[in-house]
Amino acid sequence: MNARFVVxxxxxxxxxxxxxxxxxxxxxxxxxVDRDRAAAAHDTLTGLxxxxxxxxxxxxxxxxxxxxxxxxxxxxxxxxxCPDVIVEAVPERLDLKxxxxxxxxxxxxxxxxxNTSSIPIGALGDNVIGLHFFNPVWAMxxxxxxxxxxxxxxxxxxxxxxxxxxxxxxxxxxxxxGFATSRLGVALxxxxxxxxxxxxxxxxxxxxxxxxxxxxxxxxxxxxDVVGLDVRLDIARTLREAxxxxxxxxxxxxxxxxxxxxxxxxxxxxxxxxxxxRQ
Length: 279
Ligand code: NAD
Known about the structure:
Layout: E1 4-8, H1 12-23, E2 27-31, H2 35-54, H3 60-68, E3 70-73, E4 85-88, H4 94-105, E5 111-114, E6 129-133, E7 142-147, H5 153-166, E8 169-174, H6 181-198, H7 203-214, H8 220-227, H9 229-243, H10 251-258, E9 273-274, E10 277-278
Parallel strand pairs: 1-2, 1-4, 2-3, 4-5, 5-6, 7-8
Antiparallel strand pairs: 6-7, 9-10
Helix pairs in contact: 2-3, 6-8, 6-9
Bound molecules: nicotinamide-adenine-dinucleotide.
Nicotinamide-adenine-dinucleotide is lined by residues 8-14, 31-34, 37, 89-92, 96, 100, 115-117, 134-135.
C-alpha cells in the first residue's frame, strides 16, 4: 500500500494512531512541533515494536518494515499535498485544534479527522469528521466516528473504510456533547461515585457488582482511576453545561481532585496504585 496517513501531534494518542496506521501498511508522517516529544515518540514506537516482536505478535522483519513506514516531521508545511488521511491529535484546546485543522485542510487530504474527545466536531471547521480513538490505540478495538450536520455521506463511508483498514470496529454517532462513549461512561462513573457518597456499598463492591453482574471488564470506579479523576471531572462539567444537573459532579469527585488524588497517575484515587498497578 502506498497510501499516506498523516498524524498531527505525537503525544499519547498520536503515537498510538501512528503505530496502528504503520502496522496496517500506511506510509505515516508524524507531525510534532516539540523536538523532545518527537524524540520520546520515537523511543515509544521502538519499545512497542520490540514488545510486539518479543510477544510473537510480529516477526522482526514485519516490525522493521513498519518502522521504516513512519517518518517524523516538525510541521504540516513539510507534508506533501493530497495525503489519504490526516488525523489531528493535538491537545484538547479549541483554538489550537481549529488552527491545526485549517492548516491540515490546506494539504488537501481525502479524509480529515479530529481525535477530540469532547469538542463538538461542527466547531472545528468544514469537512472535519470525528475519528475518536481510544487509549491504548493498539489494544482498544473501538473507533467512534462523529458526524457533524454538514458531514457528507461519502466522508462517513471513507471513515468506516478507514476503521476496517486499521482493524477497528466503528460506531457512528451524531455530533452531540460527550458523543456516545464519554456521555454514557461518565454517567455510570458519576452515579457510582454518588453511591460511594451514599454508603450503598464499598468502592470494591460497587465495582465488583458491575464486573460480576454485568460482565464489565472493570468497575466504573476503577475505570475512573485509570482515566484520571481530573479528566472525568472536566468532562462532567462540560456535560453539565450541555445536559443539566444529571451530570453535576459529585462533591467527592471535586474534593479528591482538589487534593491532587487523580487516580492511577498520582498513586491514589478511589484505590491506591503503585507503578501503575492497583494495590
Ligand atoms: P498529548 O498532550 O499527550 O499530545 C499532544 C501532542 O501534540 C504533544 O506532543 C504536543 O507537543 C503536540 N502538539 C501541540 N501542538 C502541535 C502542533 N501545532 N502541531 C503538531 N503537534 C502539536 O495529548 P493526548 O493525550 O495524546 O491527546 C490528544 C487528543 O486526543 C486530545 O484531543 C484528547 O482529548 C484526545 N484523546 C485523548 C485520549 C487519552 O486517553 N489521552 C483518549 C482519546 C482522545
